[in-house]
Amino acid sequence: MLRRTVLAAAGLLVAGTAAAEDKPIKIALIYGKTGPLEPYARQTEAGFMLGLEYATKGTMMIDGRKIEVILKDDQLKPDMGKAALEQAYADDKVDIAVGTTGSPVTLAMLPVAEEYKKILIVEPAVADQITGDKWNRYIFRTARNSSQDALAAAATLKDPDISIATLAQDNAFGKDGIASLKEALTAVGSKAKVVHEEYTPAQTTDFTAAGQRLFDSLKDKPGRKVIAVVWAGAHPLPKLMDLKPERYGIEIAPGGNILPVMAGWKQFPGLEGAIYYYWGFPKNPVNDWLVSEYKKKNNGAPPDFFVAGGMSAAMAVVQAIQKAKSTDTEKLIAAMEGMEFDTPKGKMTFRKEDHQALQAMYQWRMKKDPPDNYDLLELVREIPASEMNLPIKNKR
């Protein structure tokens, strides 16, 4: 009788294990598909699905389990992003979540991951607070943060005699970006002085008054004079250029942006900045595949900024589950801390202290007479992660 009981129990255990192995791996992708950053969201989704395809060699399975992606639109509203993540964890029973597009929405989502003790991979939001003072141990980020943007920008602004005025959106993204730029200038040993900070609403379309204040703050300064811009969405660069900053010897440093935005800068040859990703810069098998496959699916258009980010997040998910041999949260955290993984930009590494992905950035120059709206930039140099002394800003 005892032998039969043991055998029956063993049979149940085998059946239970088989059932667990057959259960799909559920991933929630949360993004701001409704609203002004909808192009970013579409790119993230496209890149994420391509990343799963590449990382699973087309099977869309991890260790014999099918992948199920659940899409949720937060409409760029913090309360909706929070609710979407709660629903994903509680109702959809997802194993892991990825998102979201806007930094304010992402910040609202962070406590939800901690409450449910589930992983949230942040892509593409960049505010430093996400892996800074608002961070918790369930948060990993494949997206670059504001400090990485700033350190890359600062590496291009190291002249001995330079004055900088800044223009940014009046939100967490913009304020984080400028604070990080000021820290980064010190970190890279720049002698630049930030003489004025200008913040305007994200929906601003008339930059006349803001531009004049920026010009007035710089026009009488000696040496090189630069307006550094931190902006998401429709970019103010063309409107600032319409105000003719060159009459005061003022340059604009616009950072990087998505291709449709940068195509509007073709009339400014020689313009320089730093960027997270441009399709023609990285030279590695992952990026080669991404460019080729994306062009096939998009009438010859190359992948953009956030396509690469979405793919990076997907590749991190697959490698983490494979390394952990599980979707258990604690096993995933143990696997992901310090994990090096492939992306279209080359290798990234999740730093153990704050789970921020360390990664390269790029210094670019606008080509003279670009042939089309895609072949726009020439590489000045790759800025390796090792050159950017990224501060740890969490207090845990």
Automatic annotation (TrEMBL):
Keyword NADP: no
UniProt-listed GO biological process terms: amino acid transport
Signal peptide location: 1-20
Pfam families from the UniProt entry: Peripla_BP_6
Keywords carried by this UniProt record: Amino-acid transport, Signal, Transport
Domain of life of the organism encoding this protein: Bacteria
Residue ranges of domain Leucine-binding protein in the record: 24-368
InterPro entries with a match to the protein in the record: BCAA_transport, Leu-bd, Peripla_BP_I
PANTHER family in UniProt: LEUCINE-SPECIFIC-BINDING PROTEIN, PERIPLASMIC BINDING PROTEIN OF ABC TRANSPORTER FOR NATURAL AMINO ACIDS
Family indicated by similarity: Belongs to the leucine-binding protein family.
Protein name according to UniProt: Amino acid/amide ABC transporter substrate-binding protein, HAAT family
